[in-house]
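re: that chain from earlier
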Amino acid sequence: MNYPALIEAQSLVKAGDIAGAEHALANLAETEGDKALVAALDEFPAKDLLAIIREYDASKESLVNLLVTPEQFAQAVVLERRYGDQTHEQLRGMVNSVIFREGADPAEFLYEIAEVEGGYDALVDYLLDRAQMVEHFYRYATFDLYEYGDDNKTQARDDDLLNLTRDTESLASPLDMANLEDHDWMQVTYLLRYELPEIFREVLMKLRARYKAYQASLAQDELLEGGEGSAEEEQEERPKNNDDGDDKDDDEESAL
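^ sequence. v structure.
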């Protein structure tokens, strides 16, 4: 590494001082300029960059989050799965804080994420909790599960997913349009669907598979719970054995 600040930052990350590492990188930008920091981040390990970015704080701006490039961010964000966060809350917060920063092009970030190995899985993780709404939006151009679009609109079919094209003219409902720029999953879904259709197709197919597996797992858990309940009920309802043999044993134990 050509920048002492990078060596210092990496050492601080290893020591668990994430705030100190971010401060070291910020000092580099202050002393040598923003472009120097952007260039330096190309040499910074993606896993260490992730450690800094995922510690975002919505109450204050992070210079690293403001300057990281789409390519650098993509290399880092796909490593998020290593943290084993089943809720994916950190992933969503981290993605939102970077791709929706002022002056950024969110679609460019999403494209670069998809270009990296593991990028589609990262996008699926990001949308997993909203799988039903994403599917509904694809079919009816609305996130409202109780709305099915206008009568004049044709419901999207599974076959149509193979023929998606880029479409910058929104088909979203007025309600969705009012909430669309939420700097969150709705806006991400919209951008994928209408500006990055090829990526959306792959993400939706993976999302369907993951959601199907999730439902199957829930059904299996319910089946197991039901089986355990039946076994317990059977044990409770089974009559006690009060035959002579038991009485004899009791008498022998009493005699002892």
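Confidence is low (pLDDT under 50) at residues 239-243, 251-256.
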